[in-house]
Fold:
Amino acid sequence: MAKGIQIAVGAIAIAFLLGWYASDNLGEDSFVYYQTLNEFRANGDAGDNARVHGYVATGSIERDVQSQRVRFVVQQEPPHTGGTPDGGLSVIYASLETPDLFKDGAEVVVEGRLTARNGAFEATNVLAKCPSKFEAAEAAGEVPPGAAR
Amino acid sequence: MADLGSFALRLALLIALTGTVTGIYGGLKRRGDWSEVARRSVLLLFGLLTLGMGALFWAFYTNDYQLLYVANHSARSMPTAYRLAALWGGQAGSLLLWCWMVGAYGAAAVTVNRRQTTLLPWVSATLSANAFFFLVLLNLDLVNELPALVANLGLALPDGFGIDVHTHPFERIPAGTIVSDGTGLNPLLQHPVMMIHPVMLYTGMTGFAVPFAFGLAAMASGELGTAWMRITRRWTLWAWFFLSIGILLGGRWAYEVLGWGGYWAWDPVENSSLMPWLAGTAYLHSVMVQEKRDMLKIWNLVLIGLTYSLCLFGTMLTRSGLVRSVHAFAQTEIFGQLFLGYVLVTVIVYFTVLYVRRGELKATTHIESVMSREAGFIINNWLFMALLGVVITGTLWPKLTDWILGVEQTMGPGFFNLLGAPIGMTLLLLTGVGPLIAWRRASPANLRRQFLWPTATGIVAFVVLAFVTRDHLAWMAVATWAIGAFVTATISQEYFRAIRARMRRGEGIGAAFATLMRKNQRRYGGYVVHLGMVFLFIGFAGAAFNEERLENVAVGEAVEMAPYRLEYRTALAIPEQHYGGAEARIALFDNDRPVATMRPERRMYWLEEQPVSVPSVYSTMTEDLYVVLTAIEADGSATLKIYRNPLVNWIWAGGWTFVLGTILVMWPHPEGRRQEP
Structure:
């Protein structure tokens, strides 16, 4: 199997080369940790890049058109299952460009870093998922909402 | 009808099992009668699956909301076309569509090749086994019937036995409930492209089941010549063709619907369709080396096995929710485990058989020179595999880091772009170099004759383009375009020389072209495919010059983005039944000349409780102006996200060129004789 060894050596050499090139050229910004809010609270440090998963606290969204900012609070558990904003993370997103699904109770992932100054999370990106009520009901095969009308 | 469809799927499970068992038995014992049973099982299987599909279409058409799947994916207010396309809008229907396609390919393959008696039982068995797995998923709810069955025998299963799955498309909602309307389809899927994109993708992915089955049949039966490869050449091209179109349409849909200004985000689901494409493309190239030089026999079998495994693996990855993706259907654990088991069994069976047969697959020749066509093909394969490795690593990175470090670490698009761009550019360069080098060993004279003019063209293009874009110089983009110019020159030179040679013999230009296509279809059609790739890369490189802005404008105000001016005139309410919202009217001026009215929309789908932004695009061959209505603010002003994306149209043009080229390669010629690759 000399040929097999040749191929393996070649493949490893290429992988090594690519890996070296990648690690040399990718800044720390390219790697992002994905954590739930509680995990982030437990081991996140100010200044670290993070992707934090949570839910938008009901009534917390403030759009400031003048300064082009959106502020909101992210909480661990979804509001419609009784989650409260206690211990929530206040997020400042320096953009008005929020995703379609971004609203009260939406499942969100905020990317950015915690600022040491005021403890707020400065988001560079906000991703939102379908309201889990809809998806969860579907996955559980419950009779759809609005049935039996 | 629904009961009939349900019954058809239950019965199909048995038939698929029959086809698998009789095929293996017929193949092992070389018994023609058993093989024939297997062959007919495949035909019957296709019939039953067609019945199932028909029944489900009918349920959607007639608004049969007593079916859970229909109620969850359709609604009366949706247009009929979307109601029908909702069949593949969710898990159960997608599985059925996939399974039906395997059945359709199986029926076609065993009918066309019915005289291939040695390979056929194994082909029937392989395809039946693949369909069988999907039928197990489709009928998984039968597990919940077990307690009642066992009770009849006077036994009892432990309490709480049963699984919570809803993959049977004909599952009914609980008795006594009446549902008059469904909850509708995900609004993002209510788009014309979405009606065909999944079908194209599935046509491609399931299509690879045919060459995979023939490859496995060749190994199982010991018919290790090129027969399996020759038989499946067009099938493979066909599958590859549809997979490519599916990927392109997916990009188009993302661009027109998702409203983030781009067409490719390296999302796991996109990657999962790209992975088999990369392996399949490598395979299409390396088969030519085996046909011509009788080398790479094991490698080709590895590649086709890899391609099909990646089709399954990618589907599992996204459908089981193993990797976080916007596209993943919410799913239960048992489903993911079963799917993973299926992928593993497929891979293990295939590669074990290959390992057993490895001794009989020795090459009769070897590479004579690095300056040869076969060496070019091998470099091409290495590059495709490297790219595949990059995509797989990046896609699975969150899972790998989760297992090893205990924390999920996500790899951004930066990783893929950083490594993908140089590999992609080298591959593009090879599309120009490879086809022009002679087989076995190229002489210096051959190289000079072939590359003098194209190389000069590439260098001139590089200098000129670097000068033109000197204000925002992006070396990678300029290099990509220069490589594009080089490749275009090689292709033009090939066509020019070949047509000139024929015209000297008195043929007209049209006739000369037709003869070329007939006599050397794969070569000259292949050049057109390569040209499509050049266009695609020209478009990709345009992204180096993308600009984006976020603006808040009051009615009557304008945004200046030289040479454009966008005047926000008014916002109108949308008078649709199924959704509401606002449409902004923006007058677009190019150098003060009015060119278009842009109408980005922000919709709210009532039933689905989901807002959707529909971007408006003003598109030319030089650039796209892409406007998203992010919000109508409380004070009546509009928040607009404006993207300027150069050269995006080249990507779609490349797609069309690619389609044309592949059709030229596949086009059947009645008198088709042996073709030179």
Notes: Chain A touches chain B at residues 10-11, 14-15, 18, 21-22, 25-26, 29-35, 51, 63, 65, 68, 95-98, 100-101, 103, 129-131, 134-136, 138-141, 143-149 (CB under 8 Å).
